[in-house]
Amino acid sequence: SWSNLENQILYQLLVFLQPPPRHSFRLELYNGMNLRERCSNIRVVLECTCSRMMMGDMLCFLHPSDNNQRSPLVSTLCTGSYLDVEKIACWVQNLVQSAWEHLPQWHDWQLMVLPSARSCRVLLTGPSEVQLCAVLVFAVQQGSP
Question: What are 59-111's pLDDT values in tens digits?
């Protein structure tokens, strides 16, 4: 969605997260657990690929246990086995800042990443003092593979 406020345009974007290869997202109910003990109820699960392997010499990514390697991205964006929205927001904020300098507009527009623990908020100020504010909100699609 977007809205126009005097000299500032606000964009709100919904960003759907996809699990890394060989992983899936699983929604878990809290079952009376204190919500502060976990950042999310979305668990990232390493999937067994034994049934999908047709080649006799290929190993499953989950079995045997010495090949049980999680994606580095999972380690970066999760607390334990659960998605951590604060880690995701920080990672995306850093990614946006480092990518900005590689865009042709970076000379004409000033980028400021605004502090936010649960989303990525970016303020762009153009040459005519027009401001664009983008808020990236993270989501996982229900029924995601």
Answer: 555 555 444 566 788 889 998 889 999 999 999 999 999 999 888 877 888 99
The enclosing H or E element of 75 equals helix 72-77
C-alpha–C-alpha distance, residues 49 and 37, integer Å: 31
Tokens coding 3: 């809205």
Amino acid at 102: H
The residues, any chain, with a CB within 8 Å of residue 124's CB and separated by 6 or more, are 109, 110, 111, 112, 131, 132, 133, 134
The proportion of the chain whose per-residue pLDDT surpasses 90, expressed as a percent, equals 31
Measured between alpha carbons, how far is 131 from 105 in angstroms, rounded to an integer? 14
Q: Which residues contact 135 (CB under 8 A, 6 or more apart)?
A: 10, 11, 12, 13, 116, 119, 120, 121, 122
pTM for the model stands at 0.75
